[in-house]
């Protein structure tokens, strides 16, 4: 599940919230952030980027729900909903956090992870095409899965797996169409054959094109 017991410490920010103020926060070793949601007024805070990166790089990633302890303020359960990186050095610049009510359902997107090598790949020469890499679900915050596991070992050539084939539980509701394609084993030999045949089909047209100038040259000769 997408939870961690490790708390993130934050300090309240005050004064002007412009670029210079944000720069001063980063110089101090922290990054500016905003937390909002749950019917509470938004707050400008500063947090340690290392603790945020640890969450983003965890198994549950930005879907992780964690305790946010705000100095001189009320703590909250929170989730990272947006973040910005510096384009060149890749450092965190800013994050947006959302207060989470643990007793209310929420909608999030979680990754779909495939395991195993399909029979259609090993024995049939096909390739596995992973179509749906993320799926939107609705559940209580404590039930958010870090990912959806799907074993594709028994998938044969031209076989397909749809949302309806994913492991359904009573705690997690899939919001995607049940008929949506998640993965299938296809073959590329037919496509390669079509590509290889394309130039061959064009050759007669090239031959005809070369013959036209000869015919045009022969016409004046006949008049002579």
TrEMBL record:
One of its GO terms (biological process) is translation. Part of the 50S ribosomal subunit; part of the 5S rRNA/L5/L18/L25 subcomplex. Contacts the 5S rRNA. Binds to the 5S rRNA independently of L5 and L18. Residues 9-97 form the Large ribosomal subunit protein bL25 L25 domain. This is Large ribosomal subunit protein bL25. Belongs to the bacterial ribosomal protein bL25 family. CTC subfamily. This is one of the proteins that binds to the 5S RNA in the ribosome where it forms part of the central protuberance. Residues 196-224 are annotated as: Disordered. CDD domains: Ribosomal_L25_TL5_CTC. InterPro entries: Rbsml_bL25/Gln-tRNA_synth_N, Ribosomal_bL25/Gln-tRNA_synth, Ribosomal_bL25_b-dom, Ribosomal_bL25_C, Ribosomal_bL25_long, Ribosomal_L25_dom, Ribosomal_uL5_bac-type. Pfam families: Ribosomal_L25p, Ribosomal_TL5_C.
